[in-house]
């Protein structure tokens, strides 16, 4: 029985110069592809557009020349094996339906074709065209051809088929690529995109699989949109003059972008353009499938990822297309919204558009699971945690997702310079030196302050040494806002940046750095169950404790919180066996270390053995201040400080004078009237301090001064390797016990510390400035204003009754039985 559609189709191909053949798909694949190339259809991408455009009616009548050309393209595509046979027939069916719907009979159709002959590029003007038209007309008039009436009857009983865009399960995601070129069929192959290799190299600097994957991951996680989003957010908060100043400050190459962005703001256009990144993600994933750089399932996973992100952000295709148009406008530096209708009408309105399905639900959520897992697998190694955290400060790092690659020599040099100049960290110290930047005690301190602030239990602002500055006090009191957020992120994000610089220096052991990165991941997963909780905590702590001299990172962090593609949402969040990048001191150790007070920087971590470079400076300090030259001498002196110390000298040589003021006055007078040696001069000054009870030296237990020195020297000894860990702990335990037996709390300890410092200070013109500086430091340590001055305000004094509130989370040091761990 005759196949009416094939017969009709074959007859129409005669009008295109074909020899009549009942099977319109009988041309050899090689000849069909050659013919498609001649018709400027080099690949299936262009074919998709040509077929879709052929049915773009756009008015009362369809373009007959375009419809006829599309019939030829469908036949050639089917013969070339670019379309499956049923796809080619489906297109022919639709095209035939449009022809019959817009022309009352064959004569009208042929007359329309004759009038359209001059339409360049559609109907060739060869001499055989007129004869072919006459022959077809004669066939119908003689009753031997396919009559218009029969064709109409056939169409009436054969419903128009679904034009077969990819529609099986997850393949629906490929419809997102239609903005660049419709995907006609799967799998992808070299005939889908002519010149794609050259395009990737020239436009994207992509030269292979790894390059491509990095760009795909970047488009999903950050793309161009992040910089635009941050600019727009900042500009919204500025007045017209400030916006103009921002524009004037742009480099010449950025002015067109700046002008377009300001135009969007002035017009009240939605400041959203993520589709620009996410649709390009689909396009590049398709390119990888075409080239075989990505396996089909890998490419599809990226397309599904884009669909996932798109469905989070956009309600329908029109919103998606408009977001893309805004992004393209910013990228090209010209407002293209005026051409939106013309640019997108075909996809948004054509009855055959691949977008004739709802955007929401384009891909069922049950199909997304494997794609989501694939996206996490690309970022599965702990290095991506370091990248994510460090990229908040340095967004360029986001382009380095995927497989790790060596950095440029310039980047290596910059990283080594940063480590040396900002951290005093050198490769010869080894990976172990990075432990000094992991500060768990700092997190404990901040969490405790936040808990106390939330319960109104912070120490009084008034101290025996003065009152903190109002701004510092306000900053401390504001910590109540952070009581629900673990503070580890406040120090961990800086640690991650240092770790990234160590990676980039390529001067440290790679396996050692990877282990630290894994420890960082484990720590953050322990304290934060997901990206949202981590980023909310980071925003909170950063706004309360911004880095000195630097603007807050709140806008950047919030962007990552709100953007569904941000790398943070696609990291490997899991809680395994937990270990940290550095040791977590016990609470008693932290308390004992804090006895050093303002003599040293706050002890936010346990001391460790330093490099020989650092050891030189430490030995010079030990020698210059205490004339100690060996481990044995230092240990002996530590025992002296803990057993008797400077306080013994006061008790033996000066305390008795407090009971005999006459003798004290006589001794002072004798020394004042004669020539004094340096030793006698020191003795005179101390007698005068006893006489005046300067800084309460006669009323205060001075052991605090000995304890502070002992702990300070023990830390130095540990850094020099002169004390093993167990011996160091014993020193801390002894100091802890002595403090508990001599003082009731930190305020009393601070009085003893200050009195001892004042009493035993040698003669110096800077005495008053030294004492003023110490008083200021003691105010800060006692009041926690500013919060990171020192930890006394967050710690129970040795042996004192508990007074602090337990934080609401487990980000604390072990050792306090009232806390859950």
Automatic annotation (TrEMBL):
A Pfam family annotated for this UniProt entry: DUF1266
Name of this chain's protein: DUF1266 domain-containing protein
Originating species: Halomonas marinisediminis
Ranges of residues in domain DUF1266: 200-356, 629-795
Superkingdom of this protein's organism: Bacteria
């Amino acid at each position: 029985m005759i196949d009416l559609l094939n017969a009709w189709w074959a007859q129409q191909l005669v009008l295109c110069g074909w020899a009549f053949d009942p099977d319109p798909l009988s041309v050899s694949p090689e000849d069909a592809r050659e013919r498609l190339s001649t018709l400027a259809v080099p690949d299936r991408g262009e074919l998709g557009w040509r077929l879709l455009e052929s049915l773009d009616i756009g008015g009362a009548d369809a373009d007959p020349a375009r419809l006829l050309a599309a019939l030829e393209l469908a036949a050639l595509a089917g013969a070339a094996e670019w379309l499956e046979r049923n796809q080619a027939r489906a297109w022919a069916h639709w095209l035939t339906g449009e022809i019959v719907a817009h022309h009352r009979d064959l004569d009208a159709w042929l007359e329309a074709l004759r009038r359209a002959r001059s339409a360049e590029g559609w109907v060739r003007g060869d001499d055989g065209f007129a004869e072919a038209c006459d022959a077809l007309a004669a066939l119908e008039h003689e009753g031997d051809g396919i009559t218009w009436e029969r064709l109409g009857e056939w169409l009436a009983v054969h419903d128009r088929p679904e034009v077969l865009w990819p529609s099986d399960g997850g393949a629906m995601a490929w419809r997102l690529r239609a903005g660049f070129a419709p995907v006609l069929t799967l799998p992808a192959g070299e005939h889908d995109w002519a010149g794609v290799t050259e395009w990737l190299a020239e436009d994207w600097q992509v030269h292979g699989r790894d390059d491509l994957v990095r760009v795909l991951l970047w488009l999903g996680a950050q793309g161009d949109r992040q910089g635009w989003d941050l600019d727009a957010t900042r500009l919204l908060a500025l007045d017209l003059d400030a916006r103009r100043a921002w524009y004037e400050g742009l480099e010449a190459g950025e002015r067109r972008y700046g002008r377009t962005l300001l135009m969007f703001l002035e017009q009240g256009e939605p400041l959203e353009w993520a589709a620009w990144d996410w649709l390009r993600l689909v396009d590049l994933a398709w390119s990888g499938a075409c080239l075989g750089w990505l396996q089909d399932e890998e490419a599809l996973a990226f397309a599904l990822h884009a669909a996932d992100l798109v469905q989070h952000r956009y309600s329908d295709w029109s919103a998606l297309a408009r977001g893309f148009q805004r992004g393209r406008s910013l990228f090209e530096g010209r407002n293209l919204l005026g051409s939106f209708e013309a640019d997108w009408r075909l996809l948004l309105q054509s009855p055959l558009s691949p977008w004739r399905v709802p955007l929401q639900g384009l891909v069922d959520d049950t199909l997304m699971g494997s794609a989501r897992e694939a996206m996490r697998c690309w970022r599965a190694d702990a290095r991506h945690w370091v990248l994510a955290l460090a990229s908040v400060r340095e967004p360029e790092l986001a382009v380095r997702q995927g497989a790790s690659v060596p950095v440029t020599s310039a980047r290596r040099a910059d990283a080594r310079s940063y480590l040396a100049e900002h951290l005093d960290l050198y490769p010869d110290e080894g990976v172990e030196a990075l432990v000094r930047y992991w500060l768990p005690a700092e997190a404990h301190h901040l969490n405790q302050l936040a808990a106390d602030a939330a319960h109104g239990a912070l120490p009084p602002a008034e101290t025996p040494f003065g009152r903190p500055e109002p701004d510092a006090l306000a900053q401390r009191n504001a910590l109540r806002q952070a009581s629900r957020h673990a503070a580890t992120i406040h120090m961990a994000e800086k640690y991650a940046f240092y770790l990234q610089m160590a990676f980039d220096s390529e001067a440290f052991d790679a396996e050692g750095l990877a282990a630290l990165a894994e420890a960082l991941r484990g720590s953050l997963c322990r304290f934060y169950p997901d990206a949202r909780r981590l980023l909310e905590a980071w925003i909170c702590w950063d706004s309360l404790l911004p880095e000195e001299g630097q603007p807050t990172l709140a806008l950047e962090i919030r962007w990552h919180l709100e953007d569904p593609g941000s790398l943070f949402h696609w990291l490997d969040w899991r809680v395994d066996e937990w270990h940290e990048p550095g040791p977590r001191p016990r609470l008693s150790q932290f308390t004992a270390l804090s006895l050093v007070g303002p003599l040293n920087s706050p002890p936010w971590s346990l001391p460790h053995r330093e490099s020989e470079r650092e050891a030189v400076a430490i030995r010079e300090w030990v020698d210059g201040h205490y004339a100690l030259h060996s481990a044995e001498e230092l240990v002996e002196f530590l025992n002296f400080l803990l057993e008797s110390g400077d306080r013994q000298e006061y008790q033996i040589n000066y305390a008795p004078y407090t009971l005999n003021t006459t003798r004290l006055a006589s001794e002072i007078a004798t020394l004042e009237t004669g020539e004094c040696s340096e030793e006698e001069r020191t003795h005179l000054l101390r007698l005068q301090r006893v006489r005046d009870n300067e800084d309460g030296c006669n009323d205060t237990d001075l052991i605090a001064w000995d304890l502070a020195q002992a702990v300070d020297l023990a830390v130095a000894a540990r850094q020099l390797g002169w004390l093993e860990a167990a011996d160091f702990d014993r020193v801390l335990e002894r100091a802890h016990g002595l403090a508990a037996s001599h003082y009731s709390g930190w305020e009393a300890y601070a009085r003893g510390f200050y009195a001892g410092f004042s009493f035993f200070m040698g003669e110096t013109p800077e005495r008053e400035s030294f004492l003023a500086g110490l008083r200021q430091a003691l105010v800060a340590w006692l009041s926690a204003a500013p919060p990171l001055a020192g930890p006394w305000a967050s710690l129970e004094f040795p042996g004192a009754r508990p007074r602090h509130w337990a934080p609401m989370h487990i980000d604390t040091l072990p050792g306090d039985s009232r806390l859950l761990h």
